[in-house]
Amino acid sequence: SQQGEEDPQALSIQEGENATMNCSYKTSINNLQWYRQNSGRGLVHLILIRSNEREKHSGRLRVTLDTSKKSSSLLITASRAADTASYFCATDAGAGSYQLTFGKGTKLSVIP
Amino acid sequence: DAGITQSPRHKVTETGTPVTLRCHQTENHRYMYWYRQDPGHGLRLIHYSYGVKDTDKGEVSDGYSVSRSKTEDFLLTLESATSSQTSVYFCATQKLARGQETQYFGPGTRLLVL
User: A33 and B102: CB-CB below 8 Å?
Assistant: First the structure.
């Protein structure tokens, strides 16, 4: 069963706009990660946020984590056509487990 | 990027035949994983390894077996392929030290079972 669930399933925006994707999960975690997958390729790690962190930035990426609501959001600012990809959140199972459970992903299309 | 290769990259096989997929890494990462990716299901864990000869089942392990005789190689075998095993298979590795929880993915293998 999926631990993380992304919302929306698909998102289409114009280049230059911001894109926000959300992830909800069910059980306690140590950390939450976001990955990106370009069409026909493997997943690439974007950013990791730990359970004791509320917000983290990396370049044009901003991730927030609300452990009380068991939710996270990924914001991509000033989107580019090259940001077109699927984005997945992944959570561990907590309690020393290092396995990740991936959501079904959000497919982002950035229109030039 | 971690040096992870998968072979073959594409394979077409017939129902009932055994199939072995190979994952090779050059990063000396301790943990290795096999996932399958299907539309509407995201990535699902098949099996994983936490060291040479140490493996365990994931969420969707039925019909699959794995072996890890060397740190760098992790093999996934479909004992008798079925059409439901048509999928894209990804291998991933993980160093597993504090601050190193990231998984690194291979390019994937597209498997079609006819």
Answer: yes
d(C-alpha B81, C-alpha A76), whole Å: 41
Facing residue for B101 by CB, picked from A41, A42, A48? A48
**How do B19-25 and B54-57 pair as beta strands?**
unpaired
Q: Render pLDDT for B5-58 as a digit per residue (tens, 0 to 9).
A: 999 999 999 999 999 999 999 999 999 999 999 988 889 999 999 999 999 999
Q: Is B26 exposed, middle or buried (0-12, 13-18, 19+ CB in 10 A)?
A: exposed
A16-66 pLDDT tens trace: 999 999 999 998 888 999 999 999 999 999 999 999 999 999 999 999 999
Q: Can you read off the two tokens belonging to residue B46?
A: 């098949």
**What is the end-to-end Cα distance of chain A in Å, rounded?**
36
- How many CB pairs below 8 Å do chains A and B form together? 53
